[in-house]
């Protein structure tokens, strides 16, 4: 009985190693509240649909924990959530600042810094783009309606479902984002009132809204980081092949573009 059980465990571990090599583990940052760790299922489904294995990352209590966490996944998605606290970029809170989460700011920054140091690819989404910009030395508009200068602001916080686009963005041709999407203009959804102001050093703007609001930044070649202001996971979760490209690109950057050679042979042990 002991020998059979050992054989099953060995077989299971071997099978899992095959999957781990072929399907990268994609860490997803999470929020918290009411004694729960939270992230919308749209993120996990988007990763699965793109060929990865989603791993939810609870808040790190210190930088060492964050580094150890990132060392065990193949890529990082910084998910959406609360406003980034302006203390992180040397400003006082504006009247229109929304809810903040200082503990999450710290955790996400540690995760991102660890990913950058370890050379792990990153996809930032909404707050994830803003947090990326701040982490590497940029600033934000705390509130677009009250702070964005001299230009009309399109509806950046849409009043209908996330699976419907609300405005267009213009994509820079000389960018990784354009290589992925192959389009100079795309229609996106939008749920934010903060946005990139001063772009972080070593990053460049690769997409803007018609009103000039920054919609995507990337850090190539120095940093393996792409971050967008919209929420592509809503579309990718539904199997949208166009928006699935962003998550497939992350899978490729994480080393998961190899064909699956075999499936793990996992069998249930006999209970006697």
What is this structure, in a nutshell?
This protein has helices spanning 2-22, 41-50, 63-71, 102-118, 127-135, 144-147, 176-181, 232-237, 241-253; strands at residues 25-29, 31-33, 36-38, 53-57, 75-78, 122-125, 140-141, 167-171, 185-188, 195-196, 204-208, 214-218, 225-228.
Description:
The chain has 272 residues and is an alpha/beta fold. It has one domain: Rossmann fold. It is built from nine helices and 13 strands. The protein has helices at 2-22, 41-50, 63-71, 102-118, 127-135, 144-147, 176-181, 232-237, 241-253; strands at residues 25-29, 31-33, 36-38, 53-57, 75-78, 122-125, 140-141, 167-171, 185-188, 195-196, 204-208, 214-218, 225-228. The strands form three sheets. A nine-stranded mixed β-sheet has the order 4-1-5-6-13-12-11-8-9, sandwiched between helices. Strands 2-3 form a two-stranded antiparallel ribbon. Helix 4 links the parallel strand 5 (75-78) and strand 6 (122-125). Helix 2 packs across helix 9 (241-253) and helix 4 (102-118) packs across helix 5. The longest helix has 21 residues, at 2-22. Residues 1-20 have low confidence and may be disordered.
């Amino acid at each position: 009985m002991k020998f059979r059980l050992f054989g099953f465990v060995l077989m299971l571990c071997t099978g899992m190693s095959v999957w781990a090599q072929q399907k990268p583990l994609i860490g997803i940052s999470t929020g918290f509240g009411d004694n729960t760790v939270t992230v919308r299922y749209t993120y996990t489904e988007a990763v699965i649909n793109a060929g990865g294995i989603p791993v939810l990352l609870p808040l790190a209590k210190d930088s060492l924990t964050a580094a150890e966490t990132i060392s065990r996944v193949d890529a990082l998605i910084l998910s959406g959530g609360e406003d980034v606290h302006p203390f992180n970029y040397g400003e006082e809170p504006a009247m229109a600042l929304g809810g903040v989460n200082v503990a999450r700011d710290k955790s996400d920054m540690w995760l991102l810094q660890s990913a950058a140091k370890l050379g792990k690819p990153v996809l930032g989404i909404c707050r994830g783009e803003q947090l990326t910009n701040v982490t590497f030395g940029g600033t934000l508009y705390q509130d677009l309606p009250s702070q964005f200068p001299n230009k009309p602001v399109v509806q950046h916080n849409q009043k209908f479902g996330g699976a419907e686009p609300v405005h267009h963005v213009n994509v820079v041709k000389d960018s990784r984002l354009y290589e992925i999407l192959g389009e100079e203009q795309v229609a996106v959804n939008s749920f934010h009132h903060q946005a990139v102001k001063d772009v972080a050093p070593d990053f460049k703007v690769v997409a803007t809204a018609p009103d000039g609001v920054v919609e995507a930044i990337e850090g190539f070649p120095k940093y393996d980081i792409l971050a967008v202001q919209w929420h592509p996971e809503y579309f990718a979760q539904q199997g949208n092949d166009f928006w699935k490209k962003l998550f497939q690109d992350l899978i490729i950057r994480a080393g998961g573009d190899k064909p699956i050679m075999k499936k793990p042979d996992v069998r249930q042990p006999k209970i006697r």
